Amino acid sequence: QVQLVESGGGVVQPGGSLRLSCAASGFTFSTFGMHWVRQAPGKGLEWVSFVRSDGSIKYYADSVKGRFTISRDNSKSTLYLEMNGLRGEDTAVYYCARVASSSWGIFDCWGQGTPVTVSS
Amino acid sequence: ETMMTQSPDTLSVSPGERATLSCRASQSVSSKLAWYQQKPGQAPGLLIYGASTRATGIPARFSGSGAGTEFTLTISSLQSEDFAVYYCQQYDTWPLTFGGGTKVEIK
Hints:
The complex is a heterodimer of chains A (120) and B (107).
Chain A: E1 3-7, E2 10-12, E3 18-25, E4 34-39, E5 45-51, E6 58-60, E7 68-73, E8 78-83, E9 92-100, E10 103-110, E11 114-118
Parallel strand pairs in A: 2-11
Antiparallel strand pairs in A: 1-3, 3-8, 4-5, 4-9, 5-6, 7-8, 9-10, 9-11
Chain B: E1 4-7, E2 10-13, E3 19-25, E4 33-38, E5 45-49, E6 53-54, E7 62-67, E8 70-75, E9 85-90, E10 97-98, E11 102-106
Parallel strand pairs in B: 2-11
Antiparallel strand pairs in B: 1-3, 3-8, 4-5, 4-9, 5-6, 7-8, 9-10, 9-11
């Protein structure tokens, strides 16, 4: 079955960096676009970034543009999120999600998330 | 950016009763509206897309309606496993945006 497993979260100081990974299995990763979505503690969902199946198109939320970089390695069925210049407001659980076949904008499968805490 | 507003924030419903959740977009999103369910400690899961199409495996007691700026998620007869937070999300324009969520709790 489809499985998405995030890793790489942790505690980092303001201004620091982290790289999140999302290992995919159970489907042909190279044919699906992928997203990162985050959820601050006790808050709602916020879309972060999208990458097309071949990596040629990338979108970012304004709140992370210029600081976060999404990428993928289709040979390893893995999605990444490189996060630099981290701020307190980036504290959240970060989920990777697969797009639905019918639209880039629908999240049809989600990982369990990896927590990121930005604190001194 | 398209703002999504959900109401109410919390809905108290008895098991077996009907629940009606609302979602409003700040501009038309056509029918590009999805609903997700999130239970405590879990990732969200897709319920509805295209405003009214149930995702694979979603029971028929969940139904979605609406178009343009006004949308509704109806749960016809609440089961114990349906008590959760529900989010609407538009995918008509980038950035993709979510509503703030409606918590459905046991009355």
